[in-house]
Amino acid sequence: MSSFSGFLLVLLGFGFLIFIHELGHFLAAKWAGIRADGFAIGMGPCIASYRRGVGFCLGSADARVVRKHGRRPIEMSDAERESFGLGETEYSFRALPLGGYVRMLGQEDGNPGATSEDSRSFGKAPIFRRGVVILAGITANLALAIVLFLVAFLVGVRFPAPAVGFVQPDSSAARADPIPAPGTSVKVGLQPGDRIVSIDGDPVATFIDVRVAAAMAKPDEPLNLVIERGNQLIAFVATPEKDPSTGLLSLGVTPSRSLALTDVAASRDVVVRALARVSPKLAEAGVGPGATLVAIDGEPVTNFANAVEVTRAKLASHDAAALALEFELPTPQGSSESQAAALSTRNRVTVHITPEPNLDLIASEARPKQESGEAPSADFVPAVDAGIAGFVPLARVDGVVPESLNAATLREGDVFLRVGSTYGPRTSELMRTFRAAPNATLPALLWRDGAEVAVDVRTDAKGRVGIYLGPAVDLPLLARAIPARFDADGNATDTAAKSVQSMPLATVLSIDGAPVANFAELRRKIGAIAHAAKEGESREIVLAFRDPSPEATPNTVRTTLTAEDLAGIRSLGAEFPIPEVLFDPEWTVLTANGDPLKAIAMGFRQTVTMVEQVFLTIDRVSRGSVGVDQLQGPVGILHTGTQVASEGFMFMLFFLALISVNLAVVNLLPIPIADGGLFLFLLYEKFRGRPPSIAFQNAAAMAGIALVAGLFLLTFYNDLARLFG
C-alpha cells in the first residue's frame, strides 16, 4: 500500500480481467439463446445494480422486484417478466472486486441440482452451444492476453537483459562445464558480462527467461546454455540447484547492471547513504540517484562488467591508485531534446576515488563428498567469507529491509560482536546461525555508535533476519580467523592466520611495526607487502594484537605469507569502488518496432509460452522442485502488481496479460466447479447420452469447492507470510 495509485490501478486491472472473462460467458450465453439472469463483477454483497424496468439502484434491483411483484425475475416466465416491463439481466457490482459471475437459468456452479425445464435454460441448450458458453470465458482471457501483449510490444516493454552480473561462488553457474570448440580452451564457469543466448535450444530474450528456465528445470537434470562472450559463442552445461533463500531451482547468477545509479523512489535514500560511505566527494560533486558513469580515467565504459574490467586493468600492478570517475548528471525534468543533448556534455563531473583493495573469498569448509554421478546437495550452503590471509572482519549491517522483523531493532552501521554464544561471528557463521533457528529470538551484542548494545534478533519461518550484511573494514576488531581454506576439490591449505590463532574480537595494532588503524589498513599493508615481494618469494610478517579483555597486553606473533599466498593477494587487486547493487539493471526492450503484424505474432507466441509455463509450473509443483510456498493468491498478485506498476504502464499491461493467461489456464483445469470441470461433464454427456447423476455432480461440486477453498487458504497464507513474515 506504499503506492496507493499503483494498488488501485492493479485492483482495477484485475477486476477488468474478470469482467472480460465473465463477459465472454455472457455474450456466448446470449448467442446460444440461454437466459442470463445476472451479470456481476465482484463477489459478496451487492453494492449497486441495474435492471431494465427498475433502473439504477443501491443494492440489488431484484430485491425491489420481489417487494413489488412477490417473486424474483428468474422465477418468472419470459412473457410474465416482459408484461411487467422487466429486463432479462440484472447487472451488478459486488463488494469484493476479486471475482464475478454470470447467473444463467438452470446453471449454478455450486448447486448442480438447480436445473430448469424452461426451454431457455442452460440444460436445454444443445451440447455444442453449452460447450461454447463454458469455454467462452477462457477464450476471452486468452484473446485479451494477446491484445495486451500486442499493445505492449507495439510500444516496447523494458526488461533486464539476459546478461550475467554477479556469479555466486560455488553455484551451478560457477561450476558450469564448458564445451569448447576444437582447438580452444575455456575456463569452468560463467563470468560477469556473459550474455545468455539460449537455454536447451530455446532463445533467451530477457533475464526473466533465464530465471524461469532454471526454476522450471527438471530436478537434477542439466541445462544446455549457449553463452556469448566477446565475439564467440560458447556452450556450457549447468544443473540448477535449489536456492535456500527462494526455494526455487537457480543457476546462481544475477542480472548484469548498467552504469545508471538507480532513481527508484523507494531506493533513493539507500543510494545516497551508500555513496556517502564510498566517498563524500561524490555528494559534493552532485553525484546521486539518476547519475550515469560514462568514463574511467578518460576511457569510456558501457556497463558495470565493463567498468570492473577497466578498473582491474588500470590497477593490475598496484591496487592503491586513484581513479578518475566521470559522471553525467541527470537532465532536469521538462528539458527539450536539444537542451538534453547540450546538457549531456556540459553537465558532467569528475570525482577522484581510491578504491578499497579487494578481500579474498575464503571457503572454510569443503563441500560434502559425492558418489560418482550423484548430484550435489541442494541444501549445502558453503561457508565463504571475505578476508585476507585467513583474517576476517566482523559483519556490519549495511541495510535493513523495511518489512524486516528487526526494522525497529537493528540499524544500518550495527556490527555484530556476538550472536547466541558465538563471539566475533564471521558473516557465514552469522547467517548459518540464523538459518538454523527459524521463528526464534536470538540474543546478540552489537557495536553501535562507539558502544556495546545488547538486542534480541528475530528470525522468520525460513531463518531470515531481513538485513544486508557487509564487512566492517573500518574497525580494527577481528572476527574468528579461518585456519584453513578449501578449494573446489575439497583440499585444505593452512592460512597465515592459523599460526596466529588470534581470539575473536581481538584488536589488530600493527604489522611489521607499522600501526594499523582498521581492517582496511591491514588489507592495504598486506597488499603492499605482496606487491613488493618477488615471484616465488615468501615473507615473514610480525603482527601485534590485543585480546578483548580490558587487562590484556599487546601480543606479538610471527607468521609467514607463502609464495602462493602472496601471488593470490597480488591477483586480488581492487574492484570498482561503487557497489553493483546501486546501479539499475542493464535493460533490453522487447518491441515490434511499430510493426502491427510483428506485434500480433509476438503477442500470440508470448501467450502460448505463458500457457506452457503455467502447466509446467503445475508439473514442477507435483515433482517438488517448485514448492507450494511459491504459489500466490489474489493478495500476492495485488502486492506484486503494485510493485510492477512503478515500472511503467507498458510493464503493467504486460503483467495483466500474464495474469489473464493464468486466469484462463486455471479455469481450464478439470476442477468440478471450474470451466474445465464443467466441460468434462459435457463430454461425458456427449458420449454417454446423459449427464452425470445429480448425486455425482453434487459430490464433485463439494470436492471442487473444498479444493478451491484449500488452495485459497494456502495461497492466502503464503501471501501474508511474504508480506509480514
How do the strands and helices of this protein lay out in sequence?
Layout (H helix, E strand, L loop, with lengths): L3 H29 L3 E16 L3 E4 L2 H9 L8 H6 L6 E15 L22 H29 L1 E4 L3 E4 L9 E3 L15 E5 L2 E2 L3 H9 L7 E7 L2 E7 L2 E2 L6 E2 L2 E3 L1 E5 L6 H11 L1 H5 L7 E5 L2 E2 L3 H11 L8 E6 L8 H10 L1 E6 L6 E4 L20 E4 L7 E6 L14 E5 L2 E2 L3 H9 L5 E8 L2 E8 L8 E5 L12 E3 L5 E3 L1 H5 L6 E5 L2 E2 L3 H14 L6 E8 L8 E7 L1 H10 L10 E3 L1 E4 L5 H28 L10 H12 L3 H20 L6 H14 L5 H31 L1
Antiparallel strand pairs: 1-2, 1-3, 4-34, 5-13, 6-10, 7-8, 7-9, 9-10, 11-12, 14-33, 15-16, 15-17, 17-18, 19-20, 21-26, 22-23, 22-24, 24-25, 27-28, 29-30, 29-31, 31-32
CATH architecture of the largest domain: Roll
User: What is the top-level CATH class of the largest domain?
Assistant: Mainly Beta
Mean pLDDT reading: 83
Q: Please indicate the count of domains.
A: 4
Looking at CATH, the homologous superfamily of the largest domain is PDZ domain
- Gross morphology is elongated
For the CA atoms, what is the radius of gyration? Answer: 32 Å
CATH topology of the largest domain: Pdz3 Domain
Number of helices, where a helix is a run of at least 4 consecutive DSSP H or I residues: 18
